[in-house]
Amino acid sequence: MDAKERIEELRRRLNDASHRYYDLDAPDISDYEYDMLLRELEELEAANPELVTPDSPTQHVGGRAAEAFAPVTHEVPLESLQDVFSAEELEAFSERVRGSVEGASFDVEPKIDGLSVAVRYENGVFTQGATRGDGVTGEDVTENLRTIRSLPKRLENAPEHLVVRGEVYMSKKVFRALNAEREKDEKSLFANPRNAAAGSLRQLDPAVAAERRLDIICFNVQAVTGRSFETHSETLEFLESMGFPTVPHREFDTIDGCREMIREIGEDRDQFDFDIDGAVVKVNSLEHRRILGSTAKAPRWAVAFKYPPEKKETRVTDIVIQVGRTGVLTPKAILEPVRLAGTTVTNATLHNQDFIAERDIRIGDTVLVQKAGEIIPEVLSVNLSKRPPDAVPYVFPEVCPECGAPVKRDEGGAAIRCQGAECPAQRLRHIVHFASRAGMDIEGLGTAVAQLLIDNGLISSAGDIYSLRAQDIAKLPGMGKRSAEKLIAAIEGSKSNGLVKLLGSLGIPQVGQAAAKVLARRFKSMEAIENASVEELTDTEDVGPVTAGYIRSWLDSEQSQHLLGLLRDAGVDMTYTEESTDRRFEGKVFVLTGALSRYTRDEAGEIIERLGGKTASSVSKKTSYVLAGENAGSKLTKAQSLGVTVISEEEFESMIS
Asked: Please, are residues 368 and 377 in contact by the beta-carbon 8 Å criterion?
């Protein structure tokens, strides 16, 4: 491939990676991989200047303002930093600086891995905050920034006008707790604290941002009236006196001192409460900075030293299988302890069966490991020259190690999942889903109460819910007689929910509310579904062969039959009652967008489906109506471009009245 083709390929890859990192908060490559691709592009463009274009990733900051937030033009651009990766490149930076200004000194500080923001104060009052965006235009996230306790909202003896740049981050402790909660709720996990912080700060609902307990560290005065400073160190002292949390830093007269400080920061990175992705070296004198100026995207007076991912060899002493709350079997390598990126590593995720097979990882192998994103240990490769002669290929289990039920690979995916309806590893998830609004809708039986009932030995599966007694529940911490009676009443009331709600509560793969409805309408009873063949199930509207196979496999499981037996014995209604004959929305497809004030989206969706319509997640030419609430975004725009009818809540109410 010639230089032009490679440049275009790199630009596509980097632009996509930037979009995922800045706009979606869901990166698909590590920072180090991105940096290496960007470095290659910079070198190719330097050798072929005629191929440089204004939209190249080398010419601008990666992010852009999202449509959901009001745009904010930065008073002073929020520039990115030029990266350096070696002592030689750091020395070259020093020589360039000293070649332009005399007597330059430097300031070194950790590079916090978060989301950069500018916060503005007028007469000491916090008035606006915005994300970096593309460096020139960011997103107005003022209300979300107000939820950060460490950010001062009012300053004493403050200048008339002040703009401060800081980094919003999520502490490692909060990050671990957040991912633990998301795992319980079967939500996708954040890859690292940076993505969690960015996703939290860009929530449309400030209440969500408040729950995430974000923090901020400030590191620059962008603009100020009535005050003057000579050095960067003075500005940090000023910010600290105003009550801002500031970045730890040290001053050096030589680049040798900077290099030693960079080494110390790298060695101590695990001691910080926040993640770092490097160290920043800045010229201390503000006058020197003015003389040095900036390139199209980065200042000439600062660089970011990026630490290469630390890699070491160690030995795999065992491979164990963990069963997650969603039933996925995840292999884990047990390692001989090795010091890596400031912590002792004793295990590493092996992801799935395909990952083990592709790398041919065996017990006894010597493997190369690194910390992905400085957080999660991962196995990179096997040193075959050190493989023991008795090492054999790893064989994935055919039954769940927790409950002995069969396991099955997801259709079209890499995950292998336990099929047990009463698997202990999935106990909490199954019970919470069974009682949820999408399931049997048992009010009061959420995650906390379900865990309480499990911990005290009152239930071990969803089938045990109907054998609970009020007097036993009342004795539990935080419950009491009234709470117990209300819960028992909700449980009793759920018995008459019928077949649709029951099917949606069982956790059968790919059988949600929509599939539950068509199955119930077709077969009328659980007994008829149990007796149906795969062919008969497939013949049902919107039920394909894959879903039919999942249903048949679930029904044939011994654990599933035991669960259904408990529910029958408890008197749970397993039949279908015909719904309203009002099918006014028959053949109509609705897309819901924005914040609805009179209904939740689930409530509006239930009304549409009860009247014969369908809901979809994206707008297309097949969409009949888009129901738009407050802050409707790209879906509304697309509907307008396609000529799809957009209705308000008032119009929707008129249609259903």
From this structure: no
Q: Which two tokens stand for residue 19?
A: 């979009």
Largest CA distance in the chain: 88
Tally the domains of the chain: 5
- CA pair distance 433, 445, nearest whole angstrom: 10
Compute the CA torsion angle 495, 500, 501, 506 (nearest 10 deg): 100
Q: Does residue 404 fall inside a structural domain? A: no
Q: Are 526 and 421 in contact (CB under 8 A)?
A: no
Return the CATH number at 12.
Answer: 1.10.287.610
Instruction: Answer with the one of 19, 34, 59 that is the final residue of a domain.
Output: 59
Using pLDDT thresholds of 50, 70 and 90, give the confidence band for residue 59: low
For residue 343, being part of any structural domain is answered with: yes
Question: Which H or E run contains 388?
Answer: none
In this prediction, residues 109-131 reach a mean pLDDT of 94
298 and 318 in a single domain? The answer is no
Strand partners, 330: 322
Asked whether residue 552 is domain-assigned, the answer is: yes
- Three-class SS of residue 642? helix
User: Is 297 found in the same domain as 373?
Assistant: no
Select from 536, 569, 602 the last residue of a domain: 569
Q: Is 193 helix (H, G, I), strand (E, B) or coil?
A: helix
Alpha carbon distance 404, 397 (integer Å): 10
Sign of CA dihedral 187, 188, 194, 200: negative
Q: Which residues have CB under 8 Å from 20's CB, separation 6+?
A: 26, 27, 28
Instruction: For residues 92 and 9, state if they share a domain.
Output: no
pLDDT confidence of residue 40:
81
- Choosing from 111, 297, 517, 635, the catalytic residue is 111
| Whether 111 is catalytic | yes
Give CA–CA dist 386/478, Å, rounded: 57
User: For 46-198, where are the E strands, in sequence order?
Assistant: 71-73, 82-84, 106-112, 115-122, 125-131, 137-139, 161-169
Highest mean pLDDT out of 17-31, 174-188, 195-209, 254-268: 254-268
Report d(CA 436, CA 442) in Å as an integer: 6
Judgement on whether residues 530 and 594 belong to the same structural domain of the protein: no
Other Cβ atoms closer than 10 A to 18: 20
Q: 128: number of CA atoms within 13 Å, CB side?
A: 17
Contact of 509 with 411, CB cutoff 8 Å: no
The three-state secondary structure class of 569 is: helix
pLDDT in tens, 476-503: 998 999 999 999 999 999 999 999 999 9
CA 387 to chain centre: 37
